[in-house]
Structure formats: structure tokens, C-alpha cells
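Session log. Operator J.P. requested a structure for one protein chain; no other inputs attached. Running the standard single-chain path with C-alpha cell output.
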Amino acid sequence: MASKTHSLRITWVSLWLNIGLGVLKCVVGLWANSRALIADGLHSLVDLSTDIVAILGLTLAAKPVDGTHPYGHQKLSSLAGLFISVFLLVFCAGLILNSIRGMLVGEAVAPGGSAMVVAAVSLIAKEWLFRRTREIATQERSQLAMTNAVHHRADSVSSLLVLAALIAIGLGGPAWHMLDKGLGLILGAWLGGEGIRMFLRACQELIDTAPEEAVIGDLREHVLQVNGALAYHQFRARRLGDMLMLDLHLQVDPNQTVAQGHAIAEQVKAIILDNHPEVLEVLVHVEPADERNLEPRGVHDLGQ
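Structure written below.
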């Protein structure tokens, strides 16, 4: 597996930055009575979940196989994501209920300048983190790091919205206080949507759901490029955290020796691994290309 040293390093930076920003925004939001800033602080703490999942995927989940884990440890990241998404949904439900209560009670306290400063600092920090993480993810072809980058951009956008709302409240006075509560409600619902998507993705990975058809098609196109690979069927793929595991039945000339068939299978495996660093392992079952194995649902170039 390709080294993800820089991805791991920027993820640790993101982890500590999110802790600092999240705590700062929540504390200032409580002190300034800004539910929007509290929601933004929770969003920074939400990014902790993706940081933790990325760190698990790049360290613990990347541990080699052992006697008790013959298929590796990749699903640790999916399991962590499942628990974190549930935790996130509980917090979002509380945020939404608290914002609704504030709107019904009609609290007329407008957040002060301290909330604006914190929102501006968060916007600058998260936008820098997004750009740097995206650059590293592209270089190292890390889907986990790229996912984390998307969360950083979402956090910077939410900070921008919060800053705009706080400025409007500062200019309009207490009469605009409902804007802060309303934005807290909207951000709570948005974060809840993220939590649901994280939960569903983790569940799909844990129950070995196949990746998207486009991904499958991109992987399959390499099989028949190998000289001697006549046909194949039962091409399957499943996700293991940030990685993929593949298996297929490959048909070769029945007149070839076992060693020759094995060599062709090794070439198929190599070409897939060389072109797709996200693939962890390819299991190829070799079969003779006869009537029994050339199934109608299989793929071949025999002109039948």
C-alpha cells in the first residue's frame, strides 16, 4: 500500500485545530448567546470524526494481517465512523431543539463582536486547511484525506454564513436576533444530514456493499488487456475502509499448464494493483475457458 505520510500529518494538524476551534466557538457562542456560533463550533467538532476516521484508516486500519485478522484491520475505520455518526446525530437533535426553544421563547440578546472575531478566525483557518488537505490528498491519491478536505470546506462555508449573520445582527440590532437562532436551526439540520450520510456509508461498508457501477467498470476494464486472459465472470468488489478488495473467476486456454494459467492470473492482479492504488488485494480464481465456465453473464473477447 502506498505511503500516506503527509496525509497522516495534515490530519493530525486538522485534529488539533478542530479541537481548538470547536471548543473556542462553543465557549464564545455560549458566552455571547449565539446559537449559530455554537452550531459552527459543533461543526468543527464534527470534523473531529472525519479526522479520527482518517487517522484510523491511515494507521490502525493499515496494520498488516495477523493470525486473528486474516483479512486485515481496514474495517476499524468503518466501525469508528458508525459510532461517531450516531454521536453526531444525538448532538444535532439537541441543537435543533434548543434553537427552536430560543425562537419560541423570543430571547432578544444579540451576540457581540467577540463572536464575529471567532467566526472570522475560523473561516480563515478552515479555508487554509481545506486547500492544504486537498493538495496532499491529490498527491497521495487518498480518498480518506479528500473526504476530510470536503468537510473542511463545509466548515469554512458554515463559518462564512455565521459571520454574515452575526454582522447583520450587529448592524440591525436586537430586532435581528431571530436570524441567529434560525441559522442555528438550519446548520443543525445540515449537520444532521451529514450524520445520516456518514451512518449509511459506514453501514454499507460493514455489510460489504459493492461500490458504484462506475468504480466497478473502471476496475474491470483491465482484465482482458492481459494476453492469455480469454474471459472472466463473478467479478466482485467490496470496500474495506479507504480500500477495495476484488475477486473474480478468470478463464484461460484449457490446454495451458497450471503454471501458465497462474502466470496470467498474476499479470491480471498486477495490472489492477498498478493502476488502482486504492485496491488492497485481488483474488483470481483460474478456470479453463470451456463451455461449462464460459457463462452467458461473463465477459470475454472470443467472438461468440
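Operator note: Residues 91 and 293 are 54 Å apart (CA to CA).
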